């Protein structure tokens, strides 16, 4: 067996997001010139579907997901994964605890998203966050923004009415309605999120972070000229950069 690094993915939050990130890995690598299977990274995708809701736990309404994620990370490490990514922004509430307990590096999607903004959107002044109820309640993105953003942009969230729409859109993605409904249907997740995006722009945002990976799926259907940063794309690109750096080391061993 070839001695190459492996990317581990703790998915299942939700299941569609796990499938989506695998598709995006393939798209980016193929777009970069890969024409053979062997030119793609080895990826181990673990759908941790039995973990309790991350958002409900952060809201104080449900059991902890953390033990399940620690166990999932240990399984991926035992399988030979070199590092892990978690396509769930909300789960990053416990990223340090999970990484330490499993003794494996986990790419920090939220941290890398704000690093990307420093390098590519430093002129922004007000950043809107579309995320889960739990992330909003814990002000998870504020914690990272305060420590990383060089220009100290203001962070705002949808108002209460539109935050309820965010949750509705997440649930509709979990139900697969983005695949079965017309984009013109008001129940289509993209239609729901278009309303949320407009609300954030009306509040003065000049940049929006897609901070939930179910939302990432829905924005595929939105106009591409909207000024948004998709955290799932950041996670894919950062993971591939990490993989390629490890690959060069492995080849020289």
Which tags fit this structure?
253 residues, alpha/beta, Rossmann fold, four-stranded parallel β-sheet, 8 strands, globular
Secondary structure blueprint with pairings:
Blueprint: E1 6-11, H1 15-31, E2 42-47, H2 54-58, H3 66-78, E3 83-85, H4 95-102, E4 106-107, H5 109-120, E5 126-130, H6 133-137, H7 140-148, E6 154-156, H8 160-174, H9 177-180, H10 189-202, E7 207-210, H11 213-219, E8 228-230, H12 231-251
Parallel strand pairs: 1-2, 1-3, 3-4, 5-6, 5-7, 7-8
Helix pairs in contact: 1-12, 3-4, 5-7, 5-12, 8-10, 8-11
Overall pLDDT level: 93
How many separate helices?
A: 12
Structural class: alpha/beta
The gyration radius over C-alpha positions equals 18 Å
Shape: globular
Instruction: Tell me the name of the CATH class of the largest domain.
Output: Alpha Beta
Low-confidence stretches: none
Query: What is the count of distinct domains?
Result: 2
β-strand amount: 5-15%
Biggest sheet strand line-up = 2-1-3-4
């Amino acid at each position: 067996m070839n001695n190459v690094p492996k990317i581990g993915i703790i998915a299942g939050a939700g299941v569609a997001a796990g499938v989506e990130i695998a598709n995006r890995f393939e798209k980016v690598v193929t777009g970069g010139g890969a024409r053979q299977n062997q030119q793609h990274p080895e990826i181990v995708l673990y759908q941790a579907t039995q973990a309790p809701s991350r958002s409900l736990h952060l809201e104080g309404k449900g059991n902890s997901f953390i033990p399940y994620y620690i166990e999932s990370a240990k399984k991926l490490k035992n399988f030979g994964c070199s590092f892990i990514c978690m396509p769930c922004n909300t789960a990053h509430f416990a990223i340090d605890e999970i990484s330490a307990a499993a003794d494996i590096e986990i790419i920090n999607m939220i941290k890398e998203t704000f690093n990307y903004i420093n390098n590519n959107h430093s002129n922004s002044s007000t950043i809107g966050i579309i995320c889960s109820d739990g992330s909003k309640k814990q002000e998870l993105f504020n914690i990272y923004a305060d420590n990383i953003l060089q220009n100290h942009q203001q962070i705002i969230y949808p108002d209460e009415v539109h935050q309820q729409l965010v949750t509705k859109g997440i649930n509709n993605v979990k139900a697969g309605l983005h695949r079965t409904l017309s984009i013109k249907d008001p129940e289509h997740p993209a239609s729901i999120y278009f309303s949320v995006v407009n609300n954030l722009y009306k509040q003065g945002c000049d940049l929006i972070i897609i901070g939930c990976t179910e939302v990432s799926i829905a924005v595929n259907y939105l106009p591409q000229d909207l000024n948004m940063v998709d955290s799932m794309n950041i996670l894919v690109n950062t993971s591939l950069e990490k993989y390629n750096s490890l690959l060069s080391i492995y080849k020289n061993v």
